[in-house]
DNA sequence: CGGAATCCGCTTTGATACTG
DNA sequence: CAGTATCAAAGCGGATTCCG
């Protein structure tokens, strides 16, 4: 496989990485993996998220088919969000990445400290 | 495990995802997995990257201990970049994510088209 | 309750020019 | 060759206000 073929193949992966690497997506996916939640329920549980970003993040997840949005036409309105099977399946590779992080976080942190020390001097 | 514990655990994963989800990191990691490369060699192979972003991306990778930078004090200067064992190990979970993308890209794309169709109407 | 609309600052990225 | 410096453009995220 030529270098250009390698990089060409990765260009399809990066967009997803960028999507789930944004500030809130993973948090919400993992939270919903425990079961459906209402809008304000998520807002309370995900510390620090603004109403705007929660709306946008959920909308994108719905658009990608990772989350379903169910409206109950009651008063006051109620909207449930739940992971689709596709969303559930995404948890597998994401948690593999999570394991890599927990296993190598200290190594990376030491590397950073050493690097920054060399620079500061 | 409580919802807050779930989201708290994910907060350590998101920073890495954000790092490798940026525009160029994955491309460079995968390219270097085939062997060391010189600066301008990478620049040629990674289509569209600017000199500035290549410098910044490589510096961050070096800082995180994923890539080594070797300077040959010749004239003209020569600098080789290579993946560390840590960088090599990162390929495993990243490629798992890559497989998920290739397996589910079509499903996601259909979901997006359907979603956008509902909106436009 | 669950949003939508607006404004605004910060960060990321790119283009360009210069250097040892 | 392998960078650094500077500037401008774009995108992301936050705070606030309004609505059915």
Structure description:
Two copies of one chain form a homodimer. Chain A has helices spanning 3-10, 14-20, 25-32, 39-45, 51-63, 85-120, and strands spanning 37-38, 67-72, 78-83. Chain A is mainly α. In chain A, strands 1-3-2 form a three-stranded antiparallel β-sheet. In chain A, a hairpin with a 5-residue loop joins strand 2 (67-72) and strand 3 (78-83). Chain A is extended and about 65 Å long. Chain A binds a DNA duplex (20 and 20 nucleotides) through helix 4 and helix 5. Chains A, B: This is Helix-turn-helix domain-containing protein. Chains A, B: Keywords: DNA-binding, Transcription, Transcription regulation. Chains A, B: Residues 10-109 form the HTH hxlR-type domain. Chains A, B: InterPro entries: HTH_HxlR, WH-like_DNA-bd_sf, WH_DNA-bd_sf.
Instruction: Kindly report the greatest chain-chain contact and the residue count on each side.
Output: A-B, 54 and 54 residues
Helix count of chain A?
A: 6
Rg of chain A from C-alpha positions?
Answer: 19 Å
For the biggest β-sheet of chain A, the strand order reads 1-3-2
Q: How many strands appear in the DSSP assignment of chain A?
A: 3
| Largest sheet features of chain A | 3 strands, antiparallel
Which sequence of SSEs, written as H and E, runs from N to C of chain A?
A: HHHEHHEEH
The proportion of residues in beta strands of chain A is 5-15%
Distance between the termini of chain A: 42 Å
**Overall average pLDDT of chain A:** 93
């Amino acid at each position: 496989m030529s270098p250009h073929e390698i990089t060409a193949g990765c260009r399809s992966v990066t967009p997803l990485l960028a999507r789930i690497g944004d500030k809130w997506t993973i948090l919400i996916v993992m939270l919903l993996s425990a079961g459906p939640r209402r809008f304000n329920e998520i807002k309370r549980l995900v510390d620090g998220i603004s109403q705007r970003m929660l709306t946008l993040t959920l909308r994108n997840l719905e658009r990608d088919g990772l989350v379903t949005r169910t409206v109950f036409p009651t008063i006051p309105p109620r909207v449930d969000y739940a992971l689709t099977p596709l969303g559930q399946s995404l948890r597998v590779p994401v948690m593999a990445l999570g394991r890599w992080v927990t296993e190598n976080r200290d190594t990376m942190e030491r590397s950073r400290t050493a690097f920054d020390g060399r620079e500061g001097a």
